[in-house]
Amino acid sequence: MKNNLMLCRSGELQEVSEASPRALYLESILNASGIMAIIATDLDFAINYYNPSAQNLFDFKASELEGKRFNEIPALGLTDAKRLKEMVDTVGNAEEYYYSLKRIVQGECRLIESVISGIYDNQRRLIGYILNARDVTSRQVQQERITRKVAEEQCLGMLLRLSLDRMDVDRFLQQSLESLLTSIPWLNLLPKGAIFLAEQQQQQETLRLVANYRLADAVAESCKQISFGYCVCGRAAAQRELLYIADSDDNRHDVRYPGMEPHGHYSVPLLLSNKILGVLTLYLPPGHQEKESDKAFLKRVADVLSMGISKRRAETALEYEAQYDGLTTLPNRNQIIFHIDRALARARRHGHIGAVMFIDLDHFKNINDSLGHNIGDEVLRQVSRRLVTTLRQEDVVARLGGDEFVVLLSEEGCHPRDVARQAQLVAEKIRDSLSLTYNVGGYSLNVTPSIGVALFPDNNETTTQVLQQADTAMYRAKAEGRNCIRFFLPVMQMLANERLAVEQDLRWALDERKLQLHYQPQVDAAGRMVGAEVLLRCPGQKGTFNRIDLCIDVAETTGLILPIGEWILREACQNLKRWSDSGIAGSLRHLCINISPKQFLQGDFVPLVQRVIEETGVDAQRLVLEITESTLIDAKADAIVTMQALKEIGIRVAMDDFGTGYSSLSYLTQLPLDILKIDRSFVSGISLDHKNAAIVEALMTMARQLHLYVIAEGVETSDDLEFLVQKGCEYFQGFHFSRPQSVSEFNTYLGQQSR
Q1: Quick check: 357 and 470 in contact, CB under 8 A?
Q2: Which of 30, 143, 479, 713 has its Cβ near the most Cβ atoms within 10 Å?
Q3: Residue (of 97, 88, 48) closest to 68 by Cα position
Q4: For 399-466, what is the HEC assignment?
């Protein structure tokens, strides 16, 4: 086999020495695993090169090629003289020859896609052929899936159009069956089928054959009327589930008639809100393999047929679909808005007062995420049943979507206090009922509601405004601890407006680079600076600063905390680097930066920190990232992994607001922490509060045992400082030493500290 490699450069063909580094490099590329199979021949088809990928793809040994040309090797698919001539002619015309073949490779059928092109010398004369081939089996499988998906959607679209056409139900089902069986060859069915409609015959549920495709007369006669539970079709109707049998010898196939040929069945119930409308039965070749993908498609077909049947049976069924929630059968948003509209009009006309309750299930998302939507859906069904049984017949309960429900209590009375008292009692009954344990799928689940209540009419509010008021009250209930009842008050709307204004200010400040950082020194007992905490300041568009606690809360709920958090990290690192380079940061051992829970739990948080450190050139060992205790409690395993990754970079981690959560000592020992920050709620006035003094003393003792630094926040008086020093605290932060300072003020402060 010829080993010299040829490569073209600047239009000239140059021979590369076999031992040259470039030749070895090119050889290593051609032999790399995963590259396309390559086979090169001369003009007589004698093989003078092949790579390992070619051996693997075509499953041949080197000895099998000795003395053979590539048109003599069956695995390559070129033994056919006609194909070979076609290839030679194509390449002779300076074109590429494409072909594909199927091969059994290591016991599996593989699809191989090949292309043959010419090899030319520097005079552009054809001197040989090169074959490039690759295994495209997985691509073909994916393409077949896509093709089937498209075909299924086209079939369903065709059935949907039929369901909307104006025709009687028998004709609709006959045309649907014919269209279905002539457009789904991928199911490999026998071209036979039937559709039955469910009916009541003398207090007995039966199926009546209304459409068939290519059924023998004997079959049609035998299946003209079938009782629920009889044969495969009747069993599918009775059980309300898709049934499959591989062969008519199955003991569930009760129908027998002379000359019956072996066959299997898919029998699919046609359902509407679990009400049986009929059955679709398709015939299978005996031994046909059951497939979940086929069953899923047939269930979708059944849904379309069910819709068509219901449309034709009664217009009220369509109205039901439009006005009621399919999961719980409760009225939906459209229906409850209609009822509130009428209740508002009557209340204004007769001077009555009503109430609307907005109910949201606390932490319901956790059920869906951990146990699946099937469990969650069943919980919602049970919630709806409990609401219905708890309320009076004249009350209206609706599901808006997700885990949100609305209750309308109309014409409760004429005096707001009386109506409010009655609404409170009803809300408490609802809360008690919904808080009882749910037994679903073998799980015992506890779900509590947050309930917001709005009375109407108040002024000239619309139905939408009443719902918004109840929604606002519900969010107030969530904010105040969940599992409680709150009434709408004008102040709630003021708070909602304030949050909206703060959100707009945050977006403006972020876009216009108006956010600011302040720095509060952290000192030792002698007042010498050891570090500083970075604090965010959020200016508003009117020139005033917004409350930082409200800014952080709004940023968390809107998702703005992620870009704001990245800006804080980058800006703080840039300032720290500038202070270090100027020589005034000598006594600044560290800079503490608060990290929001949402930011800390992002999968790309650690790479983001690494990138900021690299871009700013800051010393990672001077950075301390502060995490709240609640963050570590809520995401223990993920938090530990992230903290360990940060420590590998050189960054230290502090637990902020320590003592305000519910972490246990055993849990604390598992966290790779460096610093504990005792919350200001324990420190302020500690010299006069014996309980807080005992807690702080215990916390510091524990920190010493765990070899952690302690920083006491909120030190405001010399008495507080003296007490903390006596108890062994070494580092402090608070107004007693310094208020938070702007960048320019902190520059001056650093200069004074460095003297």
Answers
A1: yes
A2: 713
A3: 48
A4: EEECCEEEEEEEEEECCHHHHHHHHHHHHHHHHHHHCCCEEECCEEECCCEEEEEEEECCCCCCHHHH
**What per-residue string of b and e applies to 290-316 under the rule 16 or more CB within 10 Å gives b?**
eeeebeebbebbbbbbbbbbbbbeeee
* Mean pLDDT of all residues in 114-128: 91
The pLDDT of residue 318 = 59
Asked whether the beta carbons of 398 and 406 are under 8 A apart, the reply is yes
Compute the distance between CA of residue 704 and CA of residue 326 in angstroms, rounded to an integer: 60
Q: In terms of Cα–Cα distance, which of 70, 112, 118 is closest to 90?
A: 118
The tokens describing 163, both together, are 């369901």
Cα dihedral: 687, 690, 693, 697 (round 10):
130
Encode pLDDT of 17-54 as tens digits: 455 676 666 666 666 655 688 988 999 898 888 888 88
Q: Assess whether the previous peptide bond of 457 is cis (omega < 30° from 0).
A: yes
pLDDT over 90, % of the chain: 39
Structure tokens at 491: 């102040």
Q: Regarding beta strands 204-213 and 193-201, do their DSSP bridges make them parallel or antiparallel, or are they unpaired?
A: antiparallel
Read off the amino acid at residue 291.
K
Question: What DSSP designation does 289 have?
Answer: P
User: What does the pLDDT average to over 169-195?
Assistant: 86
Q: Return the H-helix or E-strand segment holding 283.
A: strand 275-284
For residue 252, pLDDT over 70 is answered with: yes
Residue written as token pair 């902190």: 746
- Residue 523 pLDDT: 94
pLDDT score, position 659: 63
Mean pLDDT of 660-667: 56
d(CA 265, CA 244): 6
Tokens read off for 550: 């409200």
Rounded distance, CA 305 to CA 135, Å? 42
CB 521 within 8 A of CB 734: no
**Which two tokens mark 282?**
């398709």
Beta bridge partners of 539: 545
Q: What is the distance between the alpha carbons of residues 145 and 152, in angstroms, rounded to a whole number?
A: 10
C-beta separation of 244 from 263 below 8 A: no
| Cα distance between residue 304 and residue 298, in whole Å | 10
Least confident of 208-217, 581-590, 688-697: 688-697
Give the pLDDT of residue 14. 40
* Measured distance CA(517)–CA(538) in Å, rounded: 9
The pairing of beta strand 449-456 with beta strand 485-487: parallel
Residue whose token pair is 């520097």: 122
Cα separations (Å) of 693 from 104, 699, 722, 727? 79, 10, 12, 9
Q: Give the DSSP letter of residue 63.
A: G
Residue 126, Cβ neighbours under 10 Å: how many? 14
Residues paired with residue 133 on neighbouring β-strands, in sequence order? 37, 114
**Residue 556 scores a pLDDT above 50:** yes
Instruction: Measure the CA–CA gap between 373 and 368, rounded to whole angstroms.
Output: 5
**Beta strands 264-272 and 126-135, pairing class:** unpaired
What integer best gives the mean pLDDT of the chain?
85
Q: What are the residues facing 658 on neighbouring strands?
A: 678
Cα-based distances in Å from 131 to 55, 65, 83, 118, 707:
13, 15, 14, 9, 68
**Alpha-carbon gap, residue 212 to 90, rounded angstroms:** 53
Using only C-alpha atoms, what is the Rg of the chain? 38
Mean pLDDT within 372-387: 95
Q: Are 648 and 621 in contact (CB under 8 A)?
A: no
Per-residue confidence (pLDDT) for residue 189, from 0 to 100: 80
CA 538/CA 516 separation, integer angstroms: 7
